[in-house]
Amino acid sequence: MTDLTKNAQDDTVTADQNWTTICALQDLPCDAGVAALLHADSPEETQIALFRTSDDAVYAISNFDPFSEANVLARGILCSIGEQLAVASPVLKEHFDLATGQCFEDENVSIATFPVKIADGNVLIAA
C-alpha cells in the first residue's frame, strides 16, 4: 500500500517537487471524476483520478481501487461522509477520503493522493 504523505489540497508542497500539467481546469466537469495518465509512456506511469468540486477545488487520487483491483475510481460517485469529501468505488462501493486517501470501511487500506495546484487556469499535479 502506498504511504500517504500529502493532502491533495495541502499548501505545504516542497519546492523540489516536479509539477506536471494535466489539463485545463475548465476541461474537468464539476462533481465528477476524470482519469488521466501521469508520466505516460515511462516506467513510472500511473493512472490518477481527478475530481473537481463545484467550488473549483481539485483532488487527485490513485485511480486504482485496491478492493476490485481495477483502475475505476474516476468513475466513482462523489459524496460526503460526515465533514469529509469522498468517492465511492463504482465496483464494490468502498469509500475513500479525497483529501487523505483513507478508506472509510477498512482503516488498514488507503490509496495514494497527489498534491494539486491551479496555475494560469491549468491543473498541475506534483509527483
Q: What's the layout of helices and strands?
A:
Blueprint: E1 19-24, E2 32-38, E3 46-52, E4 58-62, E5 64-65, E6 70-71, E7 77-81, E8 84-88, E9 95-97, E10 113-114, E11 116-119, E12 122-126
Antiparallel strand pairs: 1-12, 2-3, 3-4, 4-10, 5-6, 7-8, 8-9, 11-12
The largest beta-sheet arranges its strands as 2-3-4-10
- Give the overall pLDDT as a whole number: 89
Task: Identify the CATH homologous superfamily.
Answer: Rieske [2Fe-2S] iron-sulphur domain
Radius of gyration: 13 Å
- Count of DSSP H/I helices: 0
From the spread of the alpha carbons, the general shape counts as globular
Give the uncertain stretches in residue-range form: 1-12
How many strands?
12
Helical content class: under 10%
Structural class: mainly beta
Q: What's the CATH class label?
A: Mainly Beta
CATH topology: Rieske Iron-sulfur Protein
> What CATH architecture label applies?
3-layer Sandwich
The share of residues in extended strands comes to: 35-45%
Succession of helices and strands: EEEEEEEEEEEE
Characterize the biggest β-sheet: 4 strands, antiparallel
Task: Report how far apart the termini are.
Answer: 17 Å
Count structural domains. Answer: 1
